[in-house]
Amino acid sequence: MKVITILGARPQFIKAAAVSKAFSQEDNIDEILLHTGQHFDANMSDIFFAELGIPKPAYNLGIGGGSQGVMTGQQLIEIEKTLLMEKPDWVLVYGDTNSTLSGALAAVKLHIPVAHVEAGLRSFNRSMPEEINRVITDHISTLLFAPTDTAIQNLAYEGISGETCLNVGDVMYDAALLYGEQAKNQSSVLKKLELKAGSYVLATVHRAENTDDLSRLSVILKSFGAISQHQQVVWPIHPRTRKVIDKNNLHFLLGEGVRLIDPVSYLDMVMLECSASLIATDSGGVQKEAFFYSVPCVTLRDETEWEELIKLGWNRLAPPLDVEEVTTALMMAIGTQGKDFNPYGDGKAAEKIIREIVRKTV
Ligand code: UDP
C-alpha cells in the first residue's frame, strides 16, 4: 500500500515524527512524504527532520509565504501533479494548516481517500484561517482520526459520525512519550541559556489574530514586560512574530527580563517546557505539552480548541485585551495544578491510525 503524507508546518513535523516512525515498522506500507514548503527556515523545518529521524521528504514543493489564497492555490496545483504521478492508495494530512487543506482537496478531487489526523477540533471562530482549514478538511475526509471525545462530538454536531470517525487519542501525546525522556537526557538548553528549572516563564506567540493585530500584540508584549519583573520570560520567537515586532519597532514594550531567542528544536523545546514555572502561549500544541509535563498554562486567546484543559484546571484563557488582566492571569497561574486525568489517550494513537487505514484498504 502506498500512503502520501502531506506536511508543511512545524507542528506537523512533530506529529509525523510519531506516525512516520510507526509507518516505517510496517513492511507492506510505503509512506512517501510531501513537504509543501510552508515552513522553510532551517529552525522551523530541517532541524525537526534531523533531530527526530523523520525520513527525508521525497518531494519539497517550496511553496511558503504569500496570501492565504496564493499559498493554498499554488499548493493545490502542485500537490495534484504529484498525486497524479504517484497514484497513492491514501493521502494523510495533519491538523489545520493551508497544507492540510490543499492536500485533502487535491486528493479528494482525484478520488483518493483522505485520512485526517487531529480531526474534529473547533474554536468556533471562523475568522481563524485554521478553523476554515479544519472544517473543510473534516467534511471531505474519508477517515477522521479525532484526538478526544470532544472532537468526536464536534464532528457529530456537523453531521459527521459513524465508523469513519475514531477517537484514537492525540499523536502529540505519542510524541511526548517517545521524546520526553530523550529531551531530558540529550538537551543542554538550560545550561546554554543559564536557566534554573522553575525560575522562568516560557512564552510562544504566533497566531495571526495576535500578530496581525497590533493592539493585541502590544498587550502581550507589555504583559510579558510586566511579568518579567518577577520571573524572566524566555520566548523562542516565531519568525512571523519577530517580523511584526521588528517592522513596527515594538521592542521597547518588552522589559529587560524578556529574552527573545530563535525558535528551538523539539527536544530543546520539551526541555524548556518541562522546566518552566508557567507557559504563556497561543499555540495549540504547546497548550497540550504544558499539560503533558504538568506545567500550568495561560492561553493568550479568546477561545481554545483544547477545552478539556480549561475544565481540568491546567489551562486558563487570557484574551490579550487588557495588560493588567493578562498580567494578573499570568501571575495567578504560577504554582497552580489541575486535575489528574488524561483525556488524550494511551500514547498509541499512531498505531491505531495505521491499523485503521490498513483495515479500510483490504
Ligand atoms: N516548538 C518547537 N520549537 C519552538 C516552538 C515550538 O519545537 O521554538 C514545537 C512545540 O513543542 C510543539 C509545536 O512546535 O510541539 C507547536 O507548533 P506551533 O506552536 O508552531 O503550532 P500549533 O501547535 O499552534 O499549530
UniProtKB/TrEMBL annotation:
- The residue ranges of the UDP-N-acetylglucosamine 2-epimerase domain are 22-357
Report whether Isomerase shows up as a keyword of the record.
Answer: yes
Provide this UniProt record's keywords sorted from A to Z: Isomerase
Molecular function as annotated in GO: isomerase activity
* Superkingdom assignment: Bacteria
Q: Per its UniProt record, what Pfam families does this chain match?
A: Epimerase_2
Belongs to which family? Belongs to the UDP-N-acetylglucosamine 2-epimerase family.
Protein's name in the database: UDP-GlcNAc3NAcA epimerase
Organism name: Desulfuromusa kysingii
